[in-house]
Amino acid sequence: MNNKEILKKRIQQKELQIKKLQTHQTSSDVCNELYNTLIIQKAILKKELDELDKNPLVEGVKRVFSKREKRICDYW
Fold first, then answer.
1. What is the pTM of this model?
2. Three-class secondary structure assignment of the chain
3. Within the chain, which residues score under 70 in pLDDT?
4. Is the dihedral of CA 65, 63, 44, 56 positive or negative?
5. CA 3/CA 6 separation, integer angstroms
């Protein structure tokens, strides 16, 4: 398996976990925190998958000319 397939499987697993937790999200703080953690992990995995599709040369040039810091909203 290559990296893309592994990331896609992990994203699907996170989506399944999120779906299972949606019904219990409001029942307790622990479930709510776990749900939020899974959402963030899924977003990070999607960002990693997007990064694999990008051309490394073009992205290297963009990185040199862009001094912007990463923020949490960059993952969505």
1. 0.67
2. CCHHHHHHHHHHHHHHHHHHHHCCCCCCHHHHHHHHHHHHHHHHHHHHHHHHHCCHHHHHHHHHHCCCCCCHHHHC
3. 1, 67-68, 76
4. positive
5. 5
